[in-house]
Structures are given as C-alpha cells and as structure tokens.
Amino acid sequence: MNLVKLFIEQRNAFEKAYESDDWQRLAPFLSEEITYRVMGMPFHCAITGRQAVLNAMAKSVANFDRHCKRNIVSLSTPRQEGNTVITHGELSYSRDNQPAIVSRLYEVAIFDGDHISELIDIYEAGCAETYSSWMAEWGTGLDAAYI
Fold first, then answer.
1. Neighbours of 112 (CB within 10 A)
2. Cα angle at 3 between 1 and 53, to 5 degrees?
3. What's the distance, CA 79 to chain centroid?
4. Are strands 30-39 and 115-123 parallel, antiparallel or unpaired?
5. 104 φ, ψ (degrees, to nearest 5)
6. Where do the domains of the chain lie?
7. Which of 24, 55, 137, 143 is a plausible cystine mate for 63, CB 3.0–4.6 Å?
8. Which CATH class, in words, describes the domain spanning 3-138?
9. Longest Cα–Cα distance in the chain
C-alpha cells in the first residue's frame, strides 16, 4: 500500500479543513482510536480519539492560527518506512508588523491499514524556547494549545 499517497491526501484534506473549518474532512483518514501527540513545545499533549483530535485541531487553529499569517515550507519529501510516513517541515506565523515565529518539526504518521492510528509532531530542539519568548513578546491573546 502506498502510504505516502494516503498521507499527502490527508495533508490536502487538512488544508481544506483549515480553510473551511470543516474538520470532518479529516475523519476518513483517521482511525477511531487515533492518538495525536505534540512533543517539544510548551503546548505538548497527547489526545486520543478521532473526534477529540478533530476538536483539538479546531481549537488550536481558532485560538492561534486564525490570528496570524501562516507559511509552511516542506524540508523533505514524505518517505515511507513500513507502516509509517515521516516528513520534515518548517512553520512560520506572523501577525501585524511583528517578526515571525519559525519552528521546524518532524511529522510522523503511523498507519493501521489505510487509516492513521498515531500522528506525532516532534518539534526540533530550541523551538520551545523560541516559541515561549515570541509568545511573551508578541503573543498577547494567542493560545496554540490543543487541550
């Protein structure tokens, strides 16, 4: 099974959900018991259950992303290792005339058949400190937390 193709389809569905706030677009790609983990950031978390994950994504986007301009740069082509797809990317967020916050992370999607059973965002070393400093200076009213 070509899991990279499924992963890219999921990423495209994520972007459509991001634009429309229709997070149910992601449901067909996620197992019922998916666990979503965020590591290496002050808002680190582990969330289990499809609807809980979708609600958490909607919350974070509403309370952080919607107040910023977002830019995504792919730093690697997604690659498959067994039932896992791994990619490396860079996110930047800016608001008004303030400097952007830039974070690099690995995204790991573990599949059970054709559904993602575990999704893990692992931020690179130093991102948490940079994020905390940026939030202290320019993040008034923002909250990227998922839970």
1. 12
2. 130
3. 17
4. parallel
5. -110, 145
6. 3-138
7. 143
8. alpha beta
9. 46
Give backbone dihedrals phi and psi of 72, rounded to 5 degrees, phi first.
-120, 135
Parallel, antiparallel or unpaired: strands 45-48 and 69-74 = unpaired
pLDDT of residue 1: 76
Cα-to-chain-centroid distance, residue 66 = 14
**Which tokens go with 58?**
């909607």
- Classify each residue of 16-46 as buried b or exposed e, where b means 16 or more C-beta atoms within 10 Å of its C-beta: ebbeeeebebbbebbbeebbbebebbebeee
pLDDT, tens digit, 9 for 90 and up, residues 87-123:
999 999 999 889 999 999 999 999 999 999 999 999 9
CA pair distance 124, 128, nearest whole angstrom: 8
Does this model's pTM top 0.85? yes
